[in-house]
Amino acid sequence: MDIFEKIRTNRGALGMYQKESHGYFTFPKLVGDISPRMKFMGREVLTWSLNNYLGLASHPEVIKADSEAAKKYGMAYPMGARMMSGQTEMHEKFERMAAEFVSKEDAYLLNYGYQGMVSIIDALVDRRDIIVYDSESHACIMDGLRLHMGKRYVFPHNDMENFEKQLQRATKLTEKTGGGILVITEGVFGMAGDLGSLDKITALKKKYSFRLLVDDAHGFGTMGVTGAGTGEHFGVQDEIDVYFATFAKSMAGIGGFVASTQDVVNFLRYNLRSQIYAKSLPMAMTIGAIKRLEMLKSMPELKEKLWTIVNALQSGLREAGINLGNTESPVTPVFLKGGIPEASQVTHDLRKNYNIFCSIVVYPVVPRDVIMLRLIPTTMHSLEDVEYTVKAFKEIKEKLDAGFYPKEIADFTK
User: Fold this and answer.
1) In the structure, what pLDDT confidence band is assigned to residue 343 with cuts at 50, 70 and 90?
2) Distance between CA 16 and CA 10 in Å, rounded?
3) Which carries the bigger pLDDT value, residue 361 or residue 164?
4) How confident is residue 178, by pLDDT bands cut at 50, 70 and 90?
5) In 3D, which of 190, 214, 199 has the Cα closest to residue 331?
6) Contact 389, 48 (CB under 8 A)
7) Alpha-carbon distance 207 to 267, whole Å?
8) Cβ pair 345, 25 in contact under 8 A
9) How far apart are CA 198 and CA 219, in angstroms?
10) pLDDT tens for residues 377-395?
11) Going by DSSP bridges, is the β-strand pair 181-186/211-215 parallel, antiparallel, or unpaired?
12) Angle at 89 between CA 88 and CA 90, to 5 degrees
């Protein structure tokens, strides 16, 4: 079959409703300053769909740092990859700051988080090594796993009994291959908001020999006393061997970093293909990252305000009888009963009649009979926003339970 013909007849799991969803449910355009209130299709909406946990995206100090750095350096400097011609003192300064903040010996600044994680996995293991990973791992982890030429074992999400069984299998196999074991999980799972069982995983280090890689994209800046992440939250930061965080969430930017021992970070500097063969993070973004990290460290009130909003929203929704699953983080999933038709009708009702914009998640990401609406609270939201949203979701659930919504997928893109 011709490749293009295959594409015409098979849009993929997420693209099968492209005609009805594009521009409305998928690829929507939010217009205006980054804030809890933006415009969608000409209407002002209360948005709960931006990974701007600490409100740094539109903070005056951040905008000033970004604009002044861009004015001075433009978006091209430094030219080239870090190894060849893209190294600067500012890149090194951020790395020292990040390593200190997450209590590691060294850190390496990455131009992108997603590609960085793919390359980290690829670099850390060879065909003799075994990977053991959580089934709910992010797509960047899964893509990294695809590059691994050796064996890998998956354990059901946060199932510690099964995790230990996989460790036993991996241990037996390494006795034959002569390799090691890399365990991969997340600090905060970004879809459902629950935490990786870092305390229980690290406790098994006393019994088994393995190294632990943690993707803490949603935990960095939101979890722990200082915001240093989910390892700090559990008191096991020292037991995390390789710590990864992205700027796309709390830091409201582009890029990321990986932190570990000096030996491991130096190894990664010379072996991460996504960095060796790609352009260095532009100076303006690097200086912006330094400013964001300085504010994250020196302004604990940002995280305190975030958690005030998180606790009010989640307790209010739970009191209204709404299922939030097992979230222990700012990520707030709302689980409702219904299929894709009901999901489209519910989301449309929220956007058109309640002026609330949040992300919709349906099959195949969640089971066929589940609707998940994901809310992301931020420091910029108010308690009034929370009160209004709780009331709206309570009414939506009552309508859904009463069979109010037609079981058909309407085309709301027109």
Assistant:
1) confident
2) 8
3) 164
4) very high
5) 190
6) yes
7) 27
8) no
9) 12
10) 999 999 999 999 999 999 9
11) parallel
12) 90
d(CA 158, CA 161): 9
Confidence label for 338 from pLDDT (cuts 50, 70 and 90)? confident
Q: Above 90 in pLDDT, residue 412?
A: no
Closest to 258 (Cα-Cα) out of 126, 131, 110, 114:
110
In degrees, rounded to 5, the angle at the alpha carbon of residue 102 between the alpha carbons of residues 54 and 242 is 115
Answer yes or no: are the C-beta atoms of 250 and 259 closer than 8 Å. Answer: no
- Within 10 angstroms of residue 314's Cβ, the number of other Cβ atoms is 23
Which one, of 127, 143, 94, lies nearest residue 287 by Cα?
94
Give the per-residue pLDDT at 7: 83
pLDDT at 10: 78
Tokens, residue 227: 């915001």
Q: Are 310 and 176 in contact (CB under 8 A)?
A: no
Alpha carbons 76 and 84: distance in angstroms, whole number: 15
Domains identified in the chain and CATH numbers: 11-47+300-401 (3.90.1150.10), 59-298 (3.40.640.10)
Top pLDDT among 408 and 252 is at 252
pLDDT of 413 over the 60 cut: no
Treating both helix axes as pointing N-terminal to C-terminal, what angle do 383-401 and 300-319 enclose, rounded to 10 degrees?
A: 30
Q: At what angle do helices 262-269 and 113-124 cross, to 10 degrees?
A: 110
How far is the C-alpha of 17 from the C-alpha of 412, rounded, in Å?
Answer: 12
Dihedral sign (CA 386, 392, 395, 397): negative
In the three-class reduction of DSSP (H, G, I as helix; E, B as strand; rest coil), residue 130 is classed as: strand
